[in-house]
Amino acid sequence: MRLLLAIFLPFIAFFTIGRPIAGVICLILQITLIGWLPAAIWAVYALGQYKTDKKIQAALAGQKP
Question: How is residue 17 annotated by DSSP?
Fold first, then answer.
């Protein structure tokens, strides 16, 4: 679901992953028709990074110190 948001409404994807400042910057970029494509690419990339960060945190939480 977040992937569809990242493609069609990129700025909302940033708000769902807890990055509101990036969401506002993405909204400003998305306002222009030319800026919509880079905003969508940026949102998809950020979503991928978010998922990777969550997997790393889960793996580190499972380790014993």
Answer: T
Range of the domain at 16: 2-62
Contacts with 22 (C-beta within 8 Å, 6 or more apart), sequence order:
14, 46
Burial of 7 per CB tally in 10 Å (0-12, 13-18, 19+): middle
pLDDT digits (tens, 9 = 90+) for 4-58: 988 898 999 999 999 999 999 999 988 887 888 999 999 999 999 999 999 999 8
Distance CA 26, CA 63 (A): 36
Number of domains composing the chain: 1
